[in-house]
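Handout, section B. The chain below has 274 residues.
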Amino acid sequence: MNRGIAEAHRRGIVTSASLLANGAAFAGAVALARGEPGLGVGVHLNLSDGRPVLDAWTVPSLVEGQGNFHGGPAAILFRSLRGRLRLEEVEQEWDAQVRKVRDAGIQPTHLDGHKHVHMLPGLFEAALRVAQRHGIRAVRIAQEDLGLAAALADGRGGVEAAKQGLLARAMTLISMGAGEKARRAGLATADFFCGIEQTGTLQQAGVEALLWNLPEGITELMTHPGYADEALRQSRTRLREERQNELQILTSPTLRKIIATLGIRLVHYGLAAQ
């Protein structure tokens, strides 16, 4: 994944990435980020995969018996609704994740969430407080714009896109008012966001259609480039060959030509927050 992001930035249109503080390839990601000053790097807040940055015994509501995070956003939301998730522990762990990235010499441009966990009720406010504490000036609002999602789909559907579309709609419903909360906290956001519905099914024709239909303002297109090597195939991610397909799309010279023709400016969150 690190190699794919670097390639998509150097030869393609990727301008922003986010760093998983507890990821197995953290050191390599830090080295990559240091070598790419034009790449904006945020923190990918995590409560779903792996072990916490803090000692597990200090955040017991976030982990199971083996010291690993409990699971995905649905499990986290369920635990929160049942009163089994302590928001103060969430904030402490996320604060530690940001500190780990900053201690590595990277000033994050923004915060976002692994599987969009930062958008859950109560957790979003915790993410805003962490951002303010560390002088981070922007946050992703993972609410997919329906018009841009339709352009990105370019008339294609399928079971996977339908499932992701339901996820996008659910994310919008549970995070109503998030943009206003971010603005009140003094944090910048993109004007438009898309990419959830096409996660795993992205096609170049869809990205071209998106570029031709961009509204005025800042749009974030979420993507997942990578190399489908043996290490990736052994990982827990559901996206494998799809990542390499996205890498090919994002490095397409055709996209560069369209961007130049339309006068689109490629930016990252650090530039958008200025």
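Note. The first helix runs from residue 2 to 10. Compare this with the example in section A.
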